[in-house]
Q: What sequence folds into this?
C-alpha cells in the first residue's frame, strides 16, 4: 500500500529529495499490518499497552504510560539503550500476537458504531485546575497596595504562574523578569543567586533542579544568569533553548562587546536602563514559549505554502530590484516566510529570524499602518558583535482594510505581510525604501503581488486535506536540511489556547524523548486514554503526529507515512529551498 | 505607504523633513499617529529605532508634505539621532507636562539641534499629555491660558507649568505648544504652525514628484548631503 520507509530511516539519510525507492534488500514487512512500523519487533509490554485502548473504555486511565520502540533493523546498530532493553523481550511471540490482535481490534473499532463527529473528539481531557491557571497565566499581577495588606494575595498570584523567567547579573542585579516587580522578585532572586554561587564556589555549575512539580533551569552566559521555571513538563534542553532565545534578544539590543564592556567597567551595572523599551520584546518571546511555539520547539521556520514557480517570481523580483546596500531581504506573511534573498555565503539563523518575527508580529511595537521603520539591531546568530539596520514596511494587500487597520491590536497584525530589508549601512534607509517601492512595482508587474495576496488569504490546510481519510488530527514535520517545518492548521481541535498548549506540551514531550541522551530512540509511541501519538526521527526529518486513542498504531504510522509522502511531493511548495541568492 | 504626492490640485506642493525628538514615553509616536491617522492608542509600545511617515498639510497658498521621522526616545538610540535631524528643516521636541525631567531632556535636544542641525531649522517645543492637567488650566488654546498655575492642586498631574516652558521657548526662539495626542487638542496646530514657519525660499525646488525624489534621496545620503544642505540653508537665512 505504501512505502514502508519508516523502517529504513538511515537509508533516507544520504539522499536528498526526491528520495529513491526503498532498497529491495529490506525484510518484506510491508503487509498492511506491518506498514513501515517495526511492530514485529515490539514487546509484549507494548502489545498489552497497545491493546488497551481498543478494548473499550474500561481501563482507560491505566494505560497512560508511554514506551518507545526502535525499528527492527536498528537492532544490529545497537542504536539506543532503550531499544535494546525493549527488544530483549521475546520478539517472536509479540509479533504473532500483535499481528492477529491488530486486525481484530481495528475491525472491532469500526463496528463499534459511527465515529464521533470531529468536534466531539476529545484529544485532551480537560483539567479544570490547569485550564484555570493557564487562563490567568498572562494576566498582570495586581499592584501591591501601599499598606501591603494584599501582599499574600499578590504573592499567591505570582506563584500560580506556570512559567517564570528571570534574568539577573552575576552581581545579583535583576535585569528582567516576566512576572512580578522588583519588590516581589528580589528575595527570590537572592535565593537563586545563593544556590548558583554555592555550586560555583565548588567549581561546579548549577544547571537545574526540581521543586515539587516545577522544574528550574539555569543558563549562565558571561555575566548573566538566566533562569526559567516551568510546570508545563518541558525538558531542560527545551527550557534552555528558550533561555538562549531570551539571551539572544538581549544581545540583539546591546551586542555582545557592548554588554561585556558595561560589565567590565562596572560589574554591578544595571542592564535595565540600556534595555529600556525592550521589556515587551522579552515578554512577548517568553509568552510565545508559554503559549507553545512550534518554531522554537523545533528550532525551525515555517513558510507560506506557494507554488515553486510563484515563489520563483517573487525571488526574481527581489533579485531584479536588489539594492547594493542590501544584505538580506525577506518577505514574511504573519510569521511565515514567503521569500528570502541572501548573499551566497550567508544563510539566516532561525534564531535571528525568530527575534525579528517576534518583534513584528508579537510584540506590537511595529504595526501596519504606522509608516516604515528603520531599526538598528544585532542579529546574534549572524554576528553578535555589531548592528545591522532593518527596514520594515507592511504591504497593504487589501486597500479596503487600509483604513480599518489603523486600530489593529498587536495580535491582529498576524496575517500582515511585511517586506524586511536588512542592510549593514545605517544610512541606507532611502536605498531600502526605494528598493521596496521597486520591488512592489515589479511584483505587481509580474503578477506575483496578486499571487501573494491569494496565498495569504488562503487558510492553512487542515490535516484532513493533507492526509485525507486518515485519523491524524495534527502533525509537525521538520525538515532538518532546510531547517524549516510544516504543519496543518490548529483548527478545529486545537484552535483555542488551552488545547494548543496541551498539544504543544505533548509535542515537547515527544521531542524530548527522541532527543534524549545518550541513545535516543528513532521512533517513539505514546498513548493515553484519549490520544495516541508518534514521534519519528531520521537524519532528514522529525515528524510528530497525533490521532485519537482509538487509532491503531498501524493506522497512525500509515498516516505518518502519508505525511512524509505529502511533504516529499510538495517539498518545494511548503519549504523554501535555498531562496534567491546573489 | 510613503507614496509621494498624489496630484493634489494645482497648489504647489513641497516636502518638509521633520524630526521628532524627546525622552522615551512622552508621546512622540502618539502625536504623529494623531496627526497622520487621527488616531490614538492607549499604552502604545515603545518605538524601536525610528519610523518614517508622511502627511500632507494644506496651507492657503501651498501644500506642505511632511516627511516625518519619529525617533525612539531610549538612551541607546541617541547616537543615531544626528542621522535623522541633520537634514531636517523642522524639529518637534516633545516633553511630558507631568514629568519635569522630560523638559530637561527636551532642552538638551534643543541645544544639540541648535549646535548641530541645519542652521535654519524650525524647532517647536511641545508639552504633551495636556489631558492629564486639570481642564481649568487651559481648556483650549495652548500658550497663554495656563497663567493660573494649578501646581498646588493635588488632582492635577501637571508638573511643568506652562509659564516655565513658554519662557524657555521664547528665550530660545522656539515655537511652543501644549498638546494632547489623546484628545487631539492642538496637534494639527503644531504642524500648521511649523509649516507656516518654514520660509518659502527654502521650499523652492523641493517638490514631491518622483523625479525630485531621486534628487532628494541623494541629499539624504548624509555623507554626501551635508554640504548641499548647508548651501541651501545659507540662502534661506
A:
Amino acid at each position: 500500500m505504501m512505502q514502508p520507509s519508516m523502517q529504513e530511516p538511515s537509508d533516507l539519510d544520504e539522499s536528498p529529495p526526491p528520495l529513491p525507492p526503498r532498497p529491495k534488500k529490506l525484510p518484506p514487512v510491508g503487509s498492511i499490518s506491518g506498514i513501515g512500523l517495526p511492530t514485529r519487533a515490539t514487546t509484549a509490554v507494548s502489545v498489552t499497552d497497545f491493546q488497551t485502548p481498543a478494548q473499550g473504555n474500561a481501563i482507560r486511565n491505566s494505560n497512560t504510560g508511554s514506551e518507545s520502540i526502535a525499528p527492527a533493523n536498528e537492532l544490529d546498530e545497537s542504536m539506543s539503550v532503550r531499544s535494546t532493553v525493549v527488544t530483549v523481550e521475546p520478539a517472536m511471540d509479540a509479533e504473532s500476537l500483535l499481528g492477529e490482535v491488530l486486525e481484530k481490534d481495528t475491525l472491532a473499532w469500526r463496528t463499534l458504531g459511527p465515529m464521533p463527529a470531529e468536534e466531539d473528539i476529545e484529544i485532551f481531557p480537560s483539567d479544570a485546575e490547569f485550564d484555570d491557571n493557564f487562563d490567568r497565566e498572562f494576566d498582570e499581577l495586581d499592584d501591591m497596595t501601599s499598606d501591603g495588606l494584599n501582599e499574600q494575595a499578590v504573592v499567591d498570584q505570582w506563584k500560580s504562574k506556570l512559567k517564570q523567567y528571570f534574568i539577573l547579573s552575576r552581581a545579583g542585579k535583576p535585569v528582567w523578569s516576566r512576572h512580578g516587580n522588583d519588590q516581589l522578585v528580589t528575595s527570590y532572586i537572592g535565593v537563586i543567586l545563593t544556590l548558583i554561587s554555592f555550586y560555583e564556589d565548588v567549581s561546579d555549575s548549577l544547571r537545574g533542579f526540581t521543586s515539587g512539580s516545577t522544574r528550574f533551569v539555569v543558563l549562565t552566559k558571561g555575566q548573566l544568569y538566566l533562569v526559567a521555571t516551568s510546570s508545563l513538563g518541558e525538558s531542560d534542553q527545551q527550557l534552555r533553548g528558550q533561555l538562549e532565545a531570551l539571551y539572544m534578544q538581549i544581545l540583539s539590543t546591546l551586542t555582545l562587546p557592548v554588554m561585556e564592556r558595561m560589565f567590565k567597567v562596572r560589574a554591578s551595572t544595571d542592564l535595565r536602563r540600556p534595555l529600556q523599551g525592550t521589556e515587551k520584546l522579552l515578554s512577548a518571546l517568553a509568552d510565545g514559549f508559554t503559549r507553545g511555539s512550534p518554531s522554537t520547539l523545533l528550532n525551525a521556520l515555517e513558510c507560506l505554502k506557494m507554488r515553486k514557480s510563484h515563489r520563483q517570481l517573487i525571488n526574481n523580483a527581489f533579485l531584479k530590484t536588489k539594492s547594493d546596500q542590501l544584505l538580506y531581504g525577506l518577505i514574511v506573511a504573519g510569521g511565515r516566510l514567503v521569500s528570502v534573498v541572501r548573499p551566497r555565503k550567508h544563510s539566516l539563523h532561525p534564531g535571528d529570524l525568530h527575534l525579528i518575527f517576534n518583534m513584528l508580529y508579537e510584540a506590537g511595537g511595529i504595526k501596519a499602518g504606522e509608516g516604515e521603520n528603520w531599526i538598528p539591531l544585532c542579529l546574534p546568530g549572524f554576528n553578535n558583535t555589531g548592528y545591522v539596520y532593518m527596514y520594515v514596511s507592511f504591504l497593504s494587500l487589501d486597500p479596503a482594510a487600509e483604513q480599518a487597520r489603523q486600530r489593529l491590536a498587536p495580535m491582529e497584525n498576524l496575517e500582515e505581510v511585511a517586506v524586511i530589508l536588512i542592510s549593514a549601512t545605517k544610512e541606507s534607509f532611502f536605498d531600502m525604501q526605494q528598493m521596496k517601492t521597486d520591488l512592489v512595482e515589479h511584483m505587481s508587474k509580474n503578477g506575483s503581488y496578486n499571487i501573494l495576496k491569494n496565498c495569504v488569504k488562503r487558510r492553512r490546510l487542515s490535516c484532513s486535506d493533507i492526509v485525507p481519510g486518515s485519523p491524524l488530527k495534527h502533525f509537525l514535520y521538520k525538515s532538518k536540511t532546510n531547517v524549516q517545518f510544516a504543519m496543518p492548521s490548529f483548527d478545529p481541535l486545537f484552535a483555542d489556547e488551552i488545547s494548543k498548549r496541551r498539544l504543544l506540551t505533548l509535542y515537547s514531550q515527544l521531542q524530548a524523548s527522541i532527543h534524549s541522551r545518550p541513545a535516543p530512540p528513532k521512533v517513539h509511541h505514546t498513548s493515553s486514554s484519549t490520544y495516541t501519538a508518534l514521534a519519528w526521527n531520521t537524519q532528514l526529518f522529525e515528524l510528530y503526529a497525533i490521532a485519537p486513542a482509538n487509532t491503531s498504531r498501524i493506522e497512525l504510522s500509515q498516516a505518518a507515512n502519508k505525511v512524509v509522502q505529502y511533504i516529499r511531493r510538495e517539498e518545494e511548495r511548503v519549504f523554501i529551498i535555498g531562496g534567491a541568492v546573489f | 505607504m510613503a507614496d509621494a504626492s498624489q496630484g493634489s490640485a494645482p497648489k504647489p506642493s513641497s516636502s518638509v523633513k521633520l524630526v521628532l525628538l524627546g525622552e522615551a514615553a512622552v508621546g512622540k509616536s502618539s502625536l504623529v499617529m494623531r496627526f497622520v491617522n487621527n488616531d490614538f492608542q492607549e499604552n502604545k509600545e515603545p518605538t524601536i529605532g525610528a519610523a518614517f511617515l508622511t502627511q500632507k498639510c494644506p496651507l492657503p497658498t501651498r501644500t506642505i508634505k511632511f516627511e516625518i521621522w519619529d525617533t525612539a526616545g531610549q538612551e541607546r538610540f541617541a547616537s543615531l539621532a544626528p542621522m535623522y535631524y541633520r537634514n531636517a528643516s523642522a524639529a518637534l521636541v516633545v516633553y511630558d507636562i507631568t514629568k519635569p525631567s522630560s523638559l530637561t531632556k527636551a532642552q538638551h535636544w534643543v541645544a544639540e539641534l541648535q549646535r548641530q542641525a541645519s542652521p535654519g531649522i524650525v524647532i517647536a517645543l511641545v508639552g504633551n499629555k495636556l489631558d492629564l492637567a486639570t481642564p481649568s488650566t487651559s481648556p483650549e488654546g495652548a500658550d497663554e491660558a495656563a497663567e493660573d498655575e494649578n501646581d498646588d492642586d493635588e488632582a492635577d498631574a501637571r508638573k511643568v507649568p506652562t509659564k516655565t516652558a513658554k519662557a524657555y521657548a521664547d528665550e530660545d526662539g522656539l515655537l511652543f505648544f501644549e498638546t494632547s495626542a489623546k484628545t487631539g487638542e492642538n496637534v494639527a496646530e503644531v504642524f500648521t504652525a511649523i509649516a507656516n514657519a518654514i520660509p518659502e525660499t527654502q521650499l523652492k525646488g523641493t517638490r514631491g514628484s518622483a523625479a525630485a525624489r531621486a534628487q532628494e534621496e541623494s541629499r539624504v545620503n548624509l555623507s554626501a548631503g551635508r554640504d548641499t544642505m548647508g548651501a541651501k540653508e545659507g540662502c534661506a537665512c
Q: What stands out?
A: Residues 1-8, 137-153, 205-237 of chain B have pLDDT under 50 and may be disordered. Chain B has eight helices and six strands.
